[in-house]
Write a structure and sequence with these properties.
With about 100 residues, this protein is mostly beta strands. It has one helix at about 5-10, and strands at about 20-30, 30-45, 50-55, 75, 85, 90-95, 95-100.
Length: about 100
């Protein structure tokens, strides 16, 4: 587990262990930027795996390209993704995609 990644998620949450609400999620791939507006984001501590889980319900924004076409996933975690927290944004990579959530 990456302690740095774990701390980045906790910092985004102001040192709490969970978040549930609607956020805009930005996906950048190559020269294109997609903004999934008002989608449900759930973040919580998974005690069994000692990781922070980040779930994004991409389907909430039907105006945007399908997340499957961009090869995005619905659940991410600090054991497999490297999260950073910069300029009030939680940022990580999913393949060629860079994902960010402004907090």
């Amino acid at each position: 587990m990456s302690d740095k990644s774990f701390r980045a998620v906790k910092e985004a949450l102001n040192d709490t262990e969970r978040y549930y609400g609607k956020k805009d999620v930005i996906v950048s791939v190559n020269d294109k930027v997609f903004t999934y507006n008002n989608v449900i984001v759930s973040i919580n501590y998974n005690i069994g795996y000692m990781q922070m889980d980040v779930q994004v319900i991409w389907e909430d924004d039907k105006e945007q390209i399908s997340y499957k076409e961009l090869n995005l996933h619905g659940i991410y975690n600090t054991n497999f993704q490297d999260f950073t927290f910069q300029n009030h944004s939680l940022i990580w990579k999913d393949g060629n995609n860079t994902i960010s959530i402004v907090f």
